[in-house]
């Protein structure tokens, strides 16, 4: 969920495993592995195996994903999936997965409705384990999600007081990430400015080919303020909606965020992923 106490960190591990995974038949991936941390915006199925009510392992979740419902809290791919595709890696598989051996090309530790440890502490730990290229995404404009905006009788308008609280958190990220990059040799910490991009998409959906910036695409519990009702029919055109359910975004929006971060150094700053992989 697009919640205040949560943030997402994507990790590209350093080059130690590169020679193990490159085979002459496959195109060489642009990074050896993709490790994903976060909440339901990045979860690829961990919650399926956890004792939690935050689950998305039923249709219409996954209705546009090649494998159907997987535990992703959206209709299709997440930002992490789009980044994996760009890197030439398989989608990072859920950590809590009973299938197959542990992957060398990345693991997804994200879990819906989780929180974060004190953020710079977590990142020092990851650096200690060998992570060198890290992207941290801002928390999104939570005051705009239907579960928040509708409960306050704003009829889908953003609640700016809530957005302001998120901004207090986000404003502290750039100096912290700069500090980490300059004090940890060989590291690059990148900020993903998903808040400003997401807010702009909500305010100006047509700029991004979207038409509906207030209604969840799926039919949700609690009159548009909660998760999708199992096996309910989603809207006809998810690719025109910002919101998939009352907390989460559609694949269409995740695609906008991912391609911004891949190519545009105003979105992922100071370097885009395209530049990051060449460093
Ligand atoms: C940067 O790091 C130094 C030393 O670790 C610390 O004293 C300072 O408060 C940090 N600044 C920010 C903005 O995080
Ligand atoms: C359900 O939500 C809609 C749109 O926000 C609102 O107009 C309607 O009154 C709500 N219905 C109930 C029963 O609360
Ligand atoms: C890059 O992102 C910024 C901020 O979202 C936007 O204003 C700009 O138009 C984008 N540039 C391109 C080439 O898409």
Distance between the termini: 32 Å
Mean of residue pLDDT values? 87
Which sequence of strands runs across the widest sheet?
2-1-5-6-7
Biggest sheet layout? 5 strands, mixed
Quick one: CATH class? Alpha Beta
Estimate nothing, just give the exact number of structural domains. Answer: 1
CATH topology: Rossmann fold
Query: Any ligands, ions or cofactors bound here, and which?
Result: 2-acetamido-2-deoxy-beta-D-glucopyranose
Number of strands: 7
Could you tell me the radius of gyration in angstroms?
A: 18 Å
- The global form is globular
By secondary-structure content and strand pairing, the structural class works out as alpha/beta
Q: With helices defined by DSSP (H or I, 4 residues minimum), what is the helix count?
A: 9
**Strand coverage percent:** 5-15%
Order of helices and strands: EHEHEEHEHHHEHHEH
pLDDT below 50 for ≥5 consecutive residues: which ranges? 1-8, 13-24
């Amino acid at each position: 969920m697009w919640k205040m106490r949560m943030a997402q960190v994507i990790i590209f591990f350093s080059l130690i495993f590169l020679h193990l995974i490159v085979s002459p038949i496959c195109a060489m991936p642009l990074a050896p592995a993709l490790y994903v941390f976060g909440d339901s915006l990045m979860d690829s199925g961990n919650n399926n195996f956890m004792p939690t009510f935050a689950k998305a392992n039923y249709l219409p979740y996954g209705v546009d994903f090649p494998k159907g419902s997987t535990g992703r809290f959206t209709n299709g791919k997440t930002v992490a999936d789009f980044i994996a595709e760009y890197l030439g890696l398989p989608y990072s598989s859920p950590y809590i997965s009973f299938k197959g051996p542990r992957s060398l090309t990345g693991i997804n530790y994200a879990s819906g409705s989780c929180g974060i440890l004190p953020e710079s502490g977590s990142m020092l730990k990851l650096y200690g384990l060998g992570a060198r290229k890290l992207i941290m995404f801002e928390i999104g404009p939570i005051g705009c999600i239907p579960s928040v905006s509708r409960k306050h009788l704003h009829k889908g308008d953003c609640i700016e007081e809530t957005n302001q609280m998120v901004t207090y958190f986000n404003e502290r990220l750039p100096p912290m990430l700069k500090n980490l990059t300059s004090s940890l040799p060989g590291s690059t910490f990148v900020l993903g400015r998903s808040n400003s991009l997401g807010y702009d998409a909500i305010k100006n959906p047509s700029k991004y080919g979207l038409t509906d910036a207030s209604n969840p695409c799926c039919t949700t519990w609690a009159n548009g303020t909660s998760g999708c009702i199992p096996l309910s029919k989603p809207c006809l055109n998810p690719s025109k909606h910002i919101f998939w359910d009352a907390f989460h975004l559609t694949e269409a929006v995740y695609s906008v965020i991912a391609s911004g971060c891949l190519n545009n150094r105003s979105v992922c700053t100071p370097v885009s992923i395209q530049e990051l992989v060449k460093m």
